[in-house]
């Protein structure tokens, strides 16, 4: 694969577009660093149309022309939705004889340890579309059974009869020696046995047969959809007059060319989520924050990630639709809790919220789209946190309908509508709090020493309650929280990751790693088309006998590598084993090209004296109604402090400040919510 690098200084307009379920978000950065934001309705059946419409409307609002766009980045959900909706290609598998059930058997882990009746999700490749072939390579890469031309001819005939869209070739132990796998893929491609033939080691060359085969299957399953989408999108942008190379956000927090995204589509499965995490990491660096929890609340789910010293936690193994995906990505923990999460009563009559969601359609009752289930958003409307309309008047809220339905649920619980709404917020806050502990406390991090970077459409509404619940330092609200994922993409680097299996057990083996890393650097140089890129060398380490490993930076020598691994293991799992032997099983290279620094927007210098609320309204707080001032965010000057209770409105979100909190606006326009006693 190859990606063309673009090193020019960016002037003109820089635009990022992030596709969501309800809205497609557009962020525009002008040459002076000032930002504007816009939202257009998403078009799920043809998501490229919303992207093109968003770019066109944003350019029109800027009174500019498409030719003035000098940078365009895009976060897409096409790969994610294709897997989740099971609407992908017909994929076949050619595998070593005796291993046709590798995807069905899966791993040893159980989806639910105590549920004997729960079944795993069905593989993406049907059993009828799996062909076996005589060949065998052992774990050391030595040939046991040679791959013959006769065996390939028989396999080609069998594959041709299946009428596939994509064929995955995944042979046992190909990570140790991919010769058979590559030869078979080339042979079957020449025979046109399927429109597309892919060797699993070209997607990921790491050990673990099930994970490697699953990753290749996912990539094959989504590639035709993503490729078609990229082709349409590029053509539409060209017709619009956009004269710049588009970049696509990938799961690891970096950008890549759309041609690479089409071929290696599995790299984009958490494309949109990664943008927000990258943004949170950059903002934490800009503000000088230490440990930060990135907290992105949308309509259906909440995406949570830990950021340490401005670097987000990453993982080399994740899942999509309960299927393993072994590719580098930002380590995001997703929970079923969002603005559209539905409130309901369980069999014992207790109040529950989520994980089911009203989604974009019909949505919350207050949205007047036919929704009939109470949601978290409806609770905010009943409590007075939200009122009137959203998105500059584009969404009129129906308070009466939400209140009437809340009264029905309250009657079942023996509560007033207001207390019932408060109960919904308390339940969802507890759920979100558990998610935050998952990425902090369970990783050895004291959550009380963390800042909460709250964004997404509903993040600023919940930030105040969460830092109160968890005792966190503060909640930090970015200037444009509702489209923070799009804004975060603007500063993402071009990035490609490379990995190779190895086995190092001692200092002598460690010295030989130089040649393996040199090979990875050569691959990166070829792919990026330049030698001007930053290199991060990593190693997957584990104690001998463990079935899991930790990815840590490569050290100068074996002794320091061992010490770094012991420290990392103790921090993550609470202990280190000095008596156990260590081994390195995978070496990794992260190759990045940082983007030219953009101008930083600062708020205008205005007197920090009192500002006048644009309105007041009744808000239900802790069992009683209180008159609360409403402020417009753009009116809050630098270093001004607001004391709660208060509500801050803006186009893309609403911020709530509790009575025991204060809110300070810094020079860059970030809001900092802290306990009042810390003033």
Automatic annotation (TrEMBL):
One of its GO terms (biological process) is glutathione metabolic process. GO terms for cellular component: cytosol. Residues 540-674 form the Acetophenone carboxylase-like C-terminal domain. InterPro entries: ACX-like_C, ATPase_NBD, Hydant_A_N, Hydantoinase_A, Oxoprolinase-like. It comes from the Bacteria. It comes from Corynebacterium yudongzhengii. GO terms for molecular function: 5-oxoprolinase (ATP-hydrolyzing) activity. This is Hydantoinase/oxoprolinase family protein. Residues 15-190 form the Hydantoinase/oxoprolinase N-terminal domain. Residues 212-495 form the Hydantoinase A/oxoprolinase domain. Coiled coil: none annotated.
